[in-house]
Specification:
The protein has 2 domains: 174 residues, Glycogen Phosphorylase B (Rossmann fold, 3-Layer(aba) Sandwich); 174 residues, Glycogen Phosphorylase B (Rossmann fold, 3-Layer(aba) Sandwich). A 7-stranded parallel β-sheet has the order 3-2-1-4-5-6-7, with helices on both faces. The longest helix has 25 residues. The protein has 375 residues and is α/β, with parallel strands linked by helices. It is 40% helix and 15% strand.
Amino acid sequence: MSAQPILLAAGGTGGHMFPAEATARALLAKGRDVVLVTDARGQAFDALPDVPVHRIAAASPSGGLLAKAKAAVLLARGTGQASRLIGRLDPAAVIGFGSYASIPTLYAGAGAGVPLLLHEQNAHLGRANRLMANKAAAIGTGFPRVDGLKAHIKAPVIMTGNPVRPAFLDHRDTVYAPPAADRPIRLLVLGGSQGARALSDLVPAALTGLPTEVQARIRLTQQVRTEDLDRVRAAYADTPIEADLARFFTDVPDRLAAAHLVIARAGASTVAELTCLGRPAILIPYPFATDDHQALNAQALEAAGAAMLAPQHSLTAERLREMVNHLLMDVGRLGWMAGNARAFAPIDAADRLADLAIGLGLGHGADAIETGRPA
């Protein structure tokens, strides 16, 4: 390994690991060595075997006093492990992608004088990033506006966008075409990595109430939790809807590129993928997300004209049916939404983050990059 690699600190969930992997690819392409530091949940970048992985102790201090005490012990242990790792590797910079799993490495890096770059994927600064923001040299964001950033934070805030996996970038030039009259309508329903029971309840009830002639045109792909598959399949059985149901799809980039309309949660990765390809969506934010960040993500897309927001607490099957039917009958609006989604955020987010980290490691700071605190 060459001198001074760049460390990526990320939690084990896809929302943190996907942008970390994309940034690792960009750094490797620029000739920089990369090391991933994660917790026990974190997996290696399967397609990047040249990236070493180090796992350290970490935990979220949520729950009662005992849980908080255990988390404090694990975070302290992880900070010690990260300090020894940083002492051995002498990294040029550390990029933190959120979650409490990133805190030990970021804290140890700050103590060693290593420049810290935080990346916030959501429209609300996550708890881990809030905790470390006062030690950051720069903060990259996936949204033009990010709530939760305190006024005393001096780090420059840079709209980098959210890195997406290469399979989605490969479809960037697939032009959106609204459904033609009397031709198939391709709907894609995604519920996040584990599916969503609420969507398994709402979507079949909404779609099976559409006019029969509209149902006959629908080619549906719907992600469904394993325990819900039988009842969702039964809901479509006596309809002309052509439904492809599964707990997980390995070809989501292809299906997203082909979709005329998407119904989904509003996690950062989903939003990044929608805007990368430029696909119109009805977003139903997960109502129990930390700091209600999915609602803020969806509000940002709705304000940009890229999506329709449907809060779960007030959403009925009848209301969802009206929204779907209205959009399918207004292909001009679908095309307008698709264009707005495509223009929402930069698609070179991984390169932007990589260049920023390299610049920080060289002592350049963020002076050469257009910055500005989100309003």
